[in-house]
Design a protein that fits this description.
The complex is a heterodimer of chains A (299) and B (105). Chain A has helices at residues 10-17, 36-40, 79-95, 114-133, 151-157, 175-182, 192-199, 201-207, 218-231, 237-254, 260-266, 280-287; strands at residues 24-26, 51-58, 61-68, 99-103, 138-142, 161-165, 212-214. Chain A is an alpha/beta fold. Chain A has a single domain, classed as Alpha-Beta Complex (2-enoyl-CoA Hydratase, Chain A, domain 1). Chain A has a seven-stranded mixed beta sheet with strand order 1-2-3-4-5-6-7, sandwiched between helices. In chain A, helix 4 (114-133) runs parallel beside helix 5 (151-157) and helix 7 packs parallel to helix 8 (201-207). Chain B has a single domain (4-102), classed as Ribosomal Protein S5, domain 2 (2-Layer Sandwich). In chain B, helix 1 runs parallel beside helix 2 (86-102). Chain B has helices at 56-70, 86-102; strands spanning 4-10, 14-15, 21-24, 31-37, 44-50, 72-73, 75-81. Chain B is globular and about 35 Å long. The termini of chain B are far apart. Chain B is α/β, with parallel strands linked by helices. Helix content of chain B is 30%, strand content 34%. The longest helix of chain B has 17 residues, at 86-102. Chain B has a five-stranded mixed beta sheet, covered by helices on one side. In chain B, strands 2-6 form a two-stranded parallel ribbon. The chains are: A alpha/beta (299), B alpha/beta (105). Chain A binds chain B through residues 9, 11, 28-30, 39, 41-48, 69, 71-72, and chain B through 1-3, 20, 22, 25-27, 30, 32, 34, 36, 49-51, 78, 80-82.
Chain lengths: 299, 105
Amino acid sequence: MTRSYYESIARARIAGLLDADSFHEWLSAADRVTSPHLAILEQPAAFDDGVIIGQGSIAGKQIFIAAQEGGFMGGAVGEVHGAKIVGVLERAVRDHPAAVLLLLETGGVRLQEANAGLIAVSEVMRAILSARAAGVPVIVAIGGQYGCFGGMGIASRCATTIIMSEEGRLGLSGPEVIETVRGVEEYDSRDRALVWRTVGGKHRYLLGECDVIVPDSMAAFQHAVTASINNGDDWSLEALEREHQLLSDRVKRFGECKDGRDIWRKMGWPDPDAIAMMDNDEFLAAAQGRRAKQTVKVP
Amino acid sequence: MTMENLKYRFDGGKPTQGVTSVVGVLGSGNLEVMVEPAALGGACEIEVSTAANGFGTIWQAVMKDFFARHRAGDIKISVNDAGATPAIVSLRLDQAIETYKGKHK
């Protein structure tokens, strides 16, 4: 089956990735654990506050999962939404599942919930690191319409592994935010090619922020998640120092670049404009030896 | 932005077995619908929370039409709406009741 991950809602992603009938939802819709803030603002609140959490199995391995629904307020993190994700990760510290899978699709903090949302995102970051410290790999998948931005962009980079499709986007400030703050001359958020050259899946893969890039299909995401669980987590001091070294090298090498194209040229791509048109297999073959970071995997 | 809460009750439906189900997403022009079993003596209760104020009579007509088509009783339907059109609401309600019944084995 080649069902699109991008086009699916969060509940369909859970059903599509996990083993059939293995998902058990925590704080289900019927429990109505909804946002206390939205009602005060006279806005309807979703039954699940835009994130579905629970446990299930993938390729027979017991995992915990949280899936953000981008269609509800752009997947934004409110107080309850954030607490649900934190709860999943803290439970993982206690129960040691094979992994925690975070299907992220979010613009970041839900502005209607202001400080409560900001605190929630920082708690998610801490909880991701706690789970990893307890030996539970945290795997992030990004491949939805709204991308993964704001504080959750930072949170995703605290995870063990990031899996993206070309369609996925990962960043801190989203394109519209950059344009609003810096002006359209600096960044035109409606220039889709520019947006994908700076925050899209292929660029994130080449920079090494995304570890695995897959075509937009449920089967491809499922396969990548399973492989990532088996790869485990390198949480050693050496791995962290290596990462720091890569980041400082990156600033030195690419600090002056204005566009993804400039970076790709410096990486040795003879024709950077051809990258956008490559399918996933062509791209992976061509990217051999032309990434800022070659993925180091634990044996 | 104001929000409106609407309640409807239709009596005389067929008791309908199923498993609590949610369909749809509370996104712009869309809605989410939850169907739950409820011992209501054959009645169907519907609660709507909508971002679009002042459309009570249209909701009434759409819900009446839904009940006339399905005659589903002993269920509670909860709707969170972000400005879906009546046609979308009808389709979601059909999807919701089919999902609710389909999961029941």
